[in-house]
Amino acid sequence: MSELSVSHAESSESYQLAWDSLVGRSISTWNKLGESIDKPQRNRATCRLQSFESLDEFLDNHSVGPFFWFFQRRDSFMIQRQMSKWSRNTLDDYVLLPAAPGFVLRRDCYFVSHFWESSNHPDPEGKYLRLHQNKLRSQPWSYIWVDWSCMPQAPRSDKELKYFNRSLQTMSGIIRNSAFIQFYPSFKPRLWILYEVTEFALTCHDKIDSTPNIAPFLRHVSEMISTSVQATLEKYNYEYSSLDDRAVLTSWLELLVLLHQQRIDIIDLRRIMDHLTWQSSCEEYHMINSLKIAKFDGILTVNGSEYRFSAFPRLVSVNIYATNKKEIADISC
């Protein structure tokens, strides 16, 4: 056997060992979550994850059963000097948490909302990473989600792109169910940031501290509620990376604002939004007889009264989210 063949075999074995270790570590993590997950739900997730024999099979196949998110482990996040880019070579840095109720909990998980300092890296000098590390060092938590570190980045294989797209489609579930942390530079009107702030602010009992760097976004959340989403986006010239991004994020924002305006209880609102996230292809959502959402028609019905929002686009192309979610051509974030 040639040296090249031996090297390839060793590399394949190493990848397989890393994948098997990730699967075992993730399932062990779920078993420690206790009463937050019912046993049948945990068993379904376990059987589903164990059915994938390799990372590539996992990345390529999420049409049936729960989706799984990469979350970076605390130790891996805290020792790095620069936000690490997702890589199949660093699977030991992660656990996989199912995109289903009870697995992602605010007591254990953080969502990092951040700007991109450049199109090649969100924080090339590690400035904002150090701010996050300093703030989180004394906090009790176990896992963290950063888009750059927890989703395959460009250049992506077809399988990695498929997983990346699905991750973005379900990302709202991470924001709603995790603790929220951010360190923004001086205000710049970025639509993804406004959406992330709005998603957390309107679906969680916890309040976001109105520090100077996030205060403009919180004011714009209030302004969307008192006027409209479209008027607010146009007034402040919110920027986006693609028309597809704008369409999807506008739909989410308008529906969030409408539900808030109808004084839907936060517990019910979270249940509604979780359903729309987990069942992203579902045509309609019904809550008893009082509420119905036809997401692809853009109609919210509450107690017989109809309210309109921008209809969700039907995301039939795998390239719908091919661009980086906060990259804006020729603009430094």
Protein model, in words:
- With 333 residues, the chain is α+β, with helices and mostly antiparallel strands.
- The protein is built from twelve helices and nine strands.
- The protein has helices spanning 3-31, 39-50, 55-60, 74-79, 127-136, 147-150, 158-177, 191-203, 215-226, 229-235, 243-261, 266-278, and strands at residues 68-73, 94-98, 109-113, 143-145, 179-182, 284-287, 291-294, 299-302, 305-308.
- Strands 2-1-4-3-5 form a five-stranded mixed β-sheet. A four-stranded antiparallel β-sheet has the order 6-7-8-9, covered by helices on one side.
- Strand 7 (291-294) and strand 8 (299-302) form a beta hairpin.
- Helix 1 (3-31) packs antiparallel against helix 2 (39-50), helix 8 (191-203) packs across helix 9 and helix 9 (215-226) packs across helix 10.
- The longest helix is centred in the N-terminal third of the chain and has 29 residues, at 3-31.
- It is globular and about 60 Å long.
- It starts with a helix and ends in a 25-residue tail after the last strand.
